[in-house]
Design a protein that fits this description.
The structure is a single chain. This protein is an alpha+beta fold. Helix content is 30%, strand content 26%. The strands form three sheets. An eight-stranded antiparallel sheet has the order 1-2-3-4-5-6-7-8. Strands 11-16-12-13-14-15 form a six-stranded antiparallel sheet, with helices on both faces. Helix 10 packs parallel to helix 13 (287-300). The chain is elongated and about 75 Å long. Residues 1-28 have low confidence and may be disordered.
């Protein structure tokens, strides 16, 4: 039986290469690979479409896909009022459920009918296509890093036909509506600079001391941000740490860190309102916003730009709110877009959240560093650093649900050198 299936897989692979994969070799040449195991999927059609009783009793099996050049795990699971047929692509010797090219097919326990199919487009649980039976056609929705790009997109083929077609046919049928170069991007140059900065930070981050209100001044000594006074022990708070990361660009150009005082400059004429301005001195609600804008402005070193010109305002995947930023829940999609649009750049983020009592204000309460790039699989790599440690986008989402984050963009330089700490040999 296994021999017959293997022969069928080879035949299916040949058909796929003739009628499916050609789309990718012409229209999406040079883009991130998508491992479409259509040969395994079509060879198992009778197992996928069989009677509910029979399918649920099928054992887990492993197959080799010629079209995707991966091994595929076939498995059936029952949960609540449905059973799921899983076709899981291997990745790095394992079978991650949310890997690129994995299909999860849902059928009803009651009557065995198809409910939906889910295709993971990247190695990410929140980036997928899901399609449903819709009469004699299929209805589709697409999510990119948790952000819905399309809903209720009708395709002129049946659910079952789409399920057993090469993925390239789905791309072709939807190309007039879906921006596939965004979803499956070109393999980019310029990412190595960001990856290099991440490596430099990771080597040094465990050595960085922590101190409330702490930063490094332009002489390379630790100071308090508010007073400017020297501190012999010293260290960084979140704002001082973000400055130190950005100093890696400034120090490589000028041989010294940025001065602190210009970064404390307030811009009440550019942000705020009569209500929040009443608390400018008492609460300093826009410190993080002003601080990150001033750093980005300083590093831009362009005479014809203003303090807001390095703000990230025009990401089509999420709505920007003036002086507030983007919803935290959209941060991953925003970073993905920015990594494609500005390879080699990194970002300072100012978290905007409700804070304090009598009154509760929406303030900029925390500063983070975000370094995104696209890897050779077309996946987003988003390194997050804050207060002398590495965290993650997921950590920010857990700590600041429902809040916002404002971003300023900094172009990475050809050279990145972190200033030596005061106790290091010069």
């Amino acid at each position: 039986m296994q021999k017959i299936i293997h022969i069928f897989i080879l035949l299916a692979a040949a058909v796929s290469l003739l009628f499916g994969q050609g789309f990718f070799s012409s229209s999406l040449q040079g883009r991130a690979p998508f491992p479409d195991a259509v040969d395994v999927r079509t060879s198992l059609r009778s197992s996928i479409t069989g009677s509910s009783w029979a399918v649920q009793r099928l054992p887990a099996e492993y197959y080799t896909s010629e079209t995707a050049s991966v091994k595929v795990k076939f498995q059936v699971l029952r949960q609540n009022d449905a059973f799921y047929i899983l076709l899981i692509n291997s990745f790095g010797g394992t079978y991650p459920l949310y890997g690129a090219g994995t299909y999860i097919i849902k059928r009803s326990l009651e009557d065995g009918s198809f409910v939906q199919a889910k295709i993971f487009l990247k190695n990410d649980p929140d980036t997928f296509i899901r399609f449903f039976p819709f009469g004699d056609r299929a209805k589709l929705e697409l999510y990119l890093y948790g952000t819905p790009l399309h809903r209720d997109l009708i395709l002129p083929v049946s659910f079952e036909e789409l399920l057993f077609s090469p993925f390239s046919r789905l791309v072709s049928l939807s190309s007039g509506r879906i921006d596939w170069p965004l979803v499956l991007p070109e393999l980019l140059e310029g990412n190595s600079g960001v990856a290099g900065m991440i490596d430099v930070l990771r080597e040094k981050i465990d050595l960085l001391p922590d101190m409330e209100d702490g930063a490094m001044d332009d002489s390379g000594r630790f100071v308090y941000i508010e007073s400017g006074e020297r501190e012999s022990g010293g260290g960084f708070n979140c704002s001082g740490f973000a400055k130190y990361v950005a100093d890696g660009i400034y120090y490589a150009r000028h041989g010294r860190p940025m001065p602190v005082e210009p970064l404390k400059l307030k811009h009440p004429d550019l942000r705020g309102d009569p209500w929040s301005n009443r608390f400018e001195d008492e609460r300093d609600p826009f410190f993080g916003l002003d601080w990150t804008r001033n750093i980005a402005f300083t590093l831009a070193e362009k005479p014809d730009i203003g303090y807001e010109d390095m703000d990230v305002r025009d990401v089509p995947l999420a709505g920007y709110i003036e002086d507030v930023g983007y919803p935290m829940e959209r941060l991953k999609a925003v970073l993905y877009y920015l990594a494609l649009e500005y390879p080699g750049s990194f970002y300072l983020g100012s978290v905007n959240a409700q804070f304090g009592k009598d009154p509760v204000l929406r303030q900029h309460i925390h500063v983070v560093v975000l370094m995104p790039y696209i890897n050779t699989m077309g996946d987003l790599v988003a390194a997050v650093f804050e207060r002398n440690r590495e965290t993650s986008v997921e950590s920010l989402l857990r700590r600041y649900p429902g809040e916002s984050i404002h971003l300023t963009r900094i172009e990475g330089g050809s050279s990145y050198i972190l200033p030596p700490l005061p106790d290091e040999d010069h």
